[in-house]
């Protein structure tokens, strides 16, 4: 027959799995954003340093 208790357990498991997946995707998005930010910052820093060294020469 149909057991509602096992169904709710399965549903809870599926819900937790879904929330975990969303959390992991969100985490990856944050990591990617931080990585891009760091790369841009580094490039800007190097660009500014290059300009300064050109000014000195």
Automatic annotation (TrEMBL):
The keyword Transmembrane applies. The chain crosses the membrane at residues 29-48. GO terms for molecular function: carboxypeptidase activity. Keywords: Carboxypeptidase, Hydrolase, Membrane, Protease, Transmembrane, Transmembrane helix. It comes from the Bacteria. This is D-alanyl-D-alanine carboxypeptidase. It comes from Bacillus cereus. The lineage of its organism: Bacteria, Bacillati, Bacillota, Bacilli, Bacillales.
């Amino acid at each position: 027959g149909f057991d509602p208790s096992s169904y709710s357990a399965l549903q809870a498991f599926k819900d937790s799995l879904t929330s975990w997946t969303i959390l992991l995707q969100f985490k990856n998005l944050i990591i990617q954003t931080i990585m891009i930010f760091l790369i841009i910052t580094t490039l800007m820093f190097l660009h500014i340093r290059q300009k300064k060294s050109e000014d000195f020469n």
